Structure formats: C-alpha cells, structure tokens
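If I may wish for something, please sit down with the protein I am sending here and say whether tokens and residues agree:
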Amino acid sequence: MRIRLQLDSRTPTRKLQDFMLMETRFKMLTKSKPEDAKKLWAEAQRDVEARYRLYEYLAQRKTAPEPTAAD
C-alpha cells in the first residue's frame, strides 16, 4: 500500500531568522559575529525554502498504481 504525502501546513510566511532569534544562542551569534550570522541566516533560509518546495513536489506527485499478482 502506497501512501501519498499530504502537507497539513500552509506555506511558511515568517523568516527562519525571526523564529530562531527567540533563542539566546542564536542572538549571541548576531552580536559576536554579525557578518557570519548574516551569511548563515541566508543559507538557512534558502535551505528552508528548498526543503518546502521539495515537500510540495512530493505531495503533488502522482503515484503509480501498485503492481498486482498478475503483473
């Protein structure tokens, strides 16, 4: 039995940085190494967006019918 992926959440609207800055360990990075933090935030955001696009693709993909005993 094949189960199709179903997304049960909407497309993210907030940036990852907004969420992560609620934690002190990530705030400290922006204070101690602002240039590195800027690069890492951008890379992480690209990763989040790419991963969500992959999930959307997988959810929309048609699945092939299961082979039967006669096949």
Summary: The radius of gyration is 19 Å. The helical segments are 16-20, 24-32, 34-60. Residues 34-60 form the longest helix (27 residues).
